[in-house]
Amino acid sequence: MIEIIFITTAIVCVISALLTVTAHNAVHALLYLVTMMIAIALIFFLFGSPFAAALQIIVYAGAVMVLFVFVTMMLHQGEQSIIDERTLFSLKTAKGPLLLAVILVIELLLIGITPLDNPSSQTALNTVNSESQQLSAGSKTASLTSVKSLAKQLYGPYKLLVIIAAMLLLASLIAAIHIARKSSKLTENSPVNGDSESKASEAAP
Amino acid sequence: MIELSALLTPLIILIVLLLAAAWSTWLERRLLGIWQDRLGPNRVGPFGLLQVIADMIKIFTKEDWIPPFADKALFIIAPMILMIMTLLGFAIIPFSPDIQIVEFDNALLFVLALSSLSVYSIMLAGFSSNSKYALLGAMRTAAQMLSYEVFMGLALMGVVVIAGSFSLNEIVAAQSDYWFILSQPLGFLLFLFAGVAESHRAPFDLPEAETEIVAGFHTEYASMKFGMFFIGEYLGVIFISALITTLYFGGWQGPMLPPIIWFMLKTALFVMFFILLRAAIPRPRYDQLMSFGWSVLLPLALLNLLLTAVWQLTLGF
C-alpha cells in the first residue's frame, strides 16, 4: 500500500516539476511548484518524518511560495507575458539542456537496474521499503524523528548550527530593515512593503 | 463494521459542520440585528430559522457566471481550496473523547500547514478574477495572512510548551486541572487576534473591505462559487472557535453534561463572540493592521513564549 502511495506521489512530483518548467503562465508554473512541494512533504511523511513534512508545507508551500506568487501576481502582465514565454521558450532552445538531462536520467536508470551486490546501488524503492517497514513497526511510539528527539539533537550536539542559522537570519533581517527603512526624504509611504520583505528574508534561508 | 463506522463518523461530522456553518449565517444576522436595535431576518419559519433554506435555494438557482476575462481553471479551483483546507482542519479536532477523525501527534503543525495553504485560495481567487479590486483584495490577503500566521504560530507555542506536545488530545488531557486560559491569557489574546485575521472576519476583513474595494477577492464571483467562499468563511470561524476551545478552554472537558455538548456550547460561545467583534469594532486602516501586527503582536508573542518557557523551567513540572 505504502509503495503505491509513494510511487503515485513520486510521479505527481516529477510531472509537476516538469510542468513548472514548461508552463507558459508564470502563476500556473508556480502553482505546479507548490504541488511539487506538497508532494515532497508527503514523501517525507511516508519516510516516517511528519515533522519535516509539516515544516516543508509551512515554510516552503505556505510562506516562500506565497511570496513568489505574490510578487508574480503584482508584476503579471496578462496575455503579453504568456505570448513572450511562448516565443522565447521554443524546443530549439531546450535541445541542449534536454540532451544533457536525458543522459543523467539514463545513468540513473542504469544505476537502478544494476544488481544489488554493490551496496551503493541499492534502488530508491528498496530504501523506501525498509523505511516504510520501520515506520509501520514503530508508528505509535515516538520514532527517531519525533519533535522531542529532534529538539534534543538540535540543542545538543548541533547547537552551533542553530546559533549560526540564527545569526544568519538576524543578519538578513537587519539587511531587510535597512533596505526598507523610511528615509527622511521619503516620508510616509509603504511601511507595508518593508514588512513583507522582512518576512521574505526570514523565510528564505 | 469498523470500516463502516470509520466512514460514517467523518460523514456525520461533515454534514453537521456544513449545517452549522449555514445556520451561523442566520445567527450572525439575527445577533447583529439585536445588537443594532433591529430585528434581522424573522419572516421565514419560526424566528426566521428557515431563512437559510430560502437563501440556499436562491444561491443555487443563480446563474453560475464565469467572467470571460478570468483565468477559468484557477477561478473554479480557488473556492474549492478554501473549502477543502478548512474542512480538513476539523479532522484533527477532538470533539469528545470518542469523536475524532484522526489522532495525529503533530496536530498543531497540521493546523498551521493548513492555514498557510488556505492563503492560496484567496490569492488565486483575486488573481484569476483579473480585476483591479479582486487583485487588491488578494494582495492585502497575502500580506495579512502571512504576517498573522507568524503570530498565530508563536502564540500556539506557549500552549505547546506547557502541555509538552503538539497533539490536541494531549493538550486537552493536560487541561484537566485548570484551563490554559489561566496560565496563557496573553497567548490566548494573541491567538484570538491572529485567528480573526486568519479567518479574515471583521474587524480584520480588509481582503474584502466592502467600503474600499467593492468586495475584495470575491468581487467577480457569483452563485455557489461565491456561496463556497461565504460558507468557507463561517467554517473558518467555527474552526478557529473550536481551536480556541480545545487549546485554551479545556476542550470537551466540563462537569455534568456530556463532553460533546460542552464542546459545542463552548464553540458556539466563541462563534457568537466573533459576531460581537464584528458588531462592536470598526475596521482599521490597512497599514495600521500591518504595523500593529509586526510592532505590537510579534514582540508580545515572543515575550509570551519567553515567559512561558521560564515559568515552565523554574516553577513547572
TrEMBL record, chain A:
Keywords: Cell membrane, Membrane, NAD, Quinone, Transmembrane, Transmembrane helix. It catalyses: a quinone + NADH + 5 H(+)(in) = a quinol + NAD(+) + 4 H(+)(out). Its EC number is 7.1.1.-. It is a multi-pass membrane protein. Pfam families: Oxidored_q3. The chain crosses the membrane at residues 6-23, 30-47, 53-75, 96-116, 160-180. Its main location: membrane. It is found in: Cell membrane. It is an enzyme of class 7 (translocase). NDH-1 shuttles electrons from NADH, via FMN and iron-sulfur (Fe-S) centers, to quinones in the respiratory chain. Couples the redox reaction to proton translocation (for every two electrons transferred, four hydrogen ions are translocated across the cytoplasmic membrane), and thus conserves the redox energy in a proton gradient. Belongs to the complex I subunit 6 family. PANTHER family: NADH-UBIQUINONE OXIDOREDUCTASE CHAIN 6. Composed of 13 different subunits. Subunits NuoA, H, J, K, L, M, N constitute the membrane sector of the complex. This is NADH-quinone oxidoreductase subunit J. It comes from Shewanella nanhaiensis.
UniProtKB/TrEMBL annotation, chain B:
One of its GO terms (molecular function) is oxidoreductase activity. Its main location: membrane. The chain crosses the membrane at residues 73-95, 107-127, 148-166, 178-197, 226-248, 260-280, 292-313. It catalyses: a quinone + NADH + 5 H(+)(in) = a quinol + NAD(+) + 4 H(+)(out). It is a multi-pass membrane protein. InterPro entries: NADH_UbQ_OxRdtase_su1/FPO (IPR001694), NADH_UbQ_OxRdtase_su1_CS (IPR018086). Belongs to the complex I subunit 1 family. PANTHER family: NADH DEHYDROGENASE SUBUNIT 1, NADH-UBIQUINONE OXIDOREDUCTASE CHAIN 1. This is NADH-quinone oxidoreductase subunit H. It comes from Shewanella nanhaiensis. The lineage of its organism: Bacteria, Pseudomonadati, Pseudomonadota, Gammaproteobacteria, Alteromonadales.
